């Protein structure tokens, strides 16, 4: 029997709740597409940190493991040995960087929704994997998973020895580790959920009352049929395709042509603002259309309800620029970091928006820039601010900076929150390609800033960030894209 993410989420929602119900997720091939260790080695090779001798040892161990019917022990020992002498904090920093740069883009989008469904029911959620904490912890933090069952590395005085204290948590050893964790946490395994993709996880899944082979390899798919286990298929992260490349190229061409039309109109009519509005509207609409991107918006009435305003949005993708342009359409500019001024993607758009370029390294200059932005707000031009300050690697929110809130408070204008759900799925932060699909947008009620004081600003920022997080975790039904 085949089931979808929506089917399983409904089963979680209507089933028993509480911490005695476990939800155990394998990592490689389950939460993410592919293997996280490959991303780590790609990073080491790219930085010339893995020499020919090390690569030869790992490759030989992999071939030896395959020759012995896939026994992973030799591969594990070879991999652990490469970490000998490294500090644990150094390894943790590498793991976070590789997650941000590589692994984040391989997370299966529906896996995030599934995890949130378990967390909302109060289940005890854990990653159960043969991978190490180096590979797992950044992803677990991002997904909000509080527990990790994994291969542990040995360390002495904060330095790795190149050995493991648990041996590789794989196959039957992984099943035993899950049983031990369940005993300690008083989890009822017969009512618990398990998700994995490989035949090596048969023993692990058999421990659980609700096993779900997830995008299973052939061996596990055969076992699932024999055991009458439901097979869960999650959609994969977007991969580069010829159509995505052509759509992106068409969108970039259309954006530049449209901005040129707007510039020409502004020069001929002597009305620069009308020319900018025309160019930006044409650029956003035609760019999205040629890229095959549609918008599904709830709360669209709030976009015109309170102008001028400070519009704030979460930021995950280059696509955000076109989406926000299509939403705001006219009489707005942006506050953005000075470094973006030299980004080729911002040269033409920057000329049209004439944004306030803020230099965070110079307090006096930053204050002067914000004062100019306040004057523009008072003159009737709305301001767009991305308060995280940079593109985030996943939908998980970053820290909100204070600039947008100071602007709104000083100008006496409302803040209008714009929550973008899945732009990063269609155009990951480290990719130039835009894939076709529907972007879900929720525009929240405008927030008046009259009466705000500097002393309560931190509280106001926390409240707004919480509204973004709540919206992303429990998306308005009317905003769900088809």
TrEMBL record:
The keyword Magnesium does not apply. InterPro entries: HAD-like_sf (IPR036412), HAD_hydro_SerB1 (IPR006385), HAD_sf (IPR023214), Plipid/glycerol_acylTrfase (IPR002123). GO terms for biological process: phosphatidic acid biosynthetic process. Its EC number is 2.3.1.51, 3.1.3.3. Keywords: Acyltransferase, Hydrolase, Transferase. Gene3D superfamilies: HAD superfamily/HAD-like, SG protein - dephosphorylation function. Residues 309-423 form the Phospholipid/glycerol acyltransferase domain. GO terms for molecular function: 1-acylglycerol-3-phosphate O-acyltransferase activity; hydrolase activity. NCBIfam families: HAD-SF-IB (TIGR01488), HAD-SF-IB-hyp1 (TIGR01490). This is Putative phosphoserine phosphatase/1-acylglycerol-3-phosphate O-acyltransferase. It comes from Actinoplanes octamycinicus.
